[in-house]
Design a protein that fits this description.
Elements lengths: L2 H13 L14 H7 L5 E4 L4 H10 L5 E10 L6 E9 L3 E6 L8 E6 L4 H12 L5 E2 L1 H12 L6 H8 L8 E2 L1 H11 L7 E9 L2 E9 L8 H6 L3 E4 L21
Parallel strand pairs: 6-7
Antiparallel strand pairs: 1-2, 1-5, 2-3, 3-4, 5-10, 8-9
Length: 253
Amino acid sequence: MGLLQLLGRRLAHYLAQPRRNQLRPSTSDPALLLRTLRRGDVLLVEGNSRFSTAIKYLTQSTWSHAALYIGDEPLREGGKPQPMLIDVDVEQGVRRIALSEFANQHTRICRPQGLSPVVVDQLVNFMRARLGYSYDLKNVFDLARFLIRQPPVPGHMRRRLIALGSGEPTKAICSTLLAQAFESIRYPILPEIETVLAQGGGVEQSQEILHIRNYSLYTPRDFDVSPFFDVIKPRLQQNFDYLALQWSDDGSP
C-alpha cells in the first residue's frame, strides 16, 4: 500500500467518526419507515460524521448520504433476510448494509415513478455489480479541506468542488454511483432541459429535450429537489389524521 493510499485510509477513518451533538432525531419510527419503503427507493440520510459536515456545507443541504433500498435479503450467506440497502461508505466502499443502521437518523425517502419490477431489478443489479468498489480517496482529500476551514465558496462553484476525484471506474462516492445507476436505465434526476420549437400538423409546438448531466456533478440533495422523484413521508402514508393526535394538557407552549 502506497503512502498516499495509507494516508487516505487514515483520513477516511477520521472523517467517518461521528461529531458530538450533531445527530438530529429521526422523524419516522423505524417500523413505519420500513413499511413505507419500496425496492428501488433512494433513502437520503442527514448523517453526523465529520465527512457529512463537509458534504452538507458544500451542497447547502440537510442530506449528506444517499443509498438504494433493495428489499429483504440476508446480510451473510445462510443468515436471516432483513431490509437491506446498497450504499458507498467512506471506509468500506460500495457495500450492502442493513436498514437498521440508519434507523435512528434523520432520513427522507425519494421514489422514482413508473419503474416496472424488471427495470427495478436492472437498477439494483447495476449497484450490486459494483459491490466491493472502493471509495474515491482523492475525494476524501478534497473534502477534508472544508473541515479545517470552511471558506466562502460561491454557490455556482460548490457542485464542481463536490465532484472532485480521481474518476477511476473502480472508485465511487454515494451520489455519483446512484446517478450512474439511474442513468443506466435512462431515468432522469436533474437533467438539463432544452425547450425547442417544432412543427407538428402545421402547428408550431414546444418540445422538451433532456440532456444527461455528468454523473460526477450529482449530490444527495438532487434526489430531494428532483421533479422526477416523489418525496415520501412515512407518517402521511398511514392514514394520517391530525384530529386524532393526542396532545399534552400541561399548558406549556
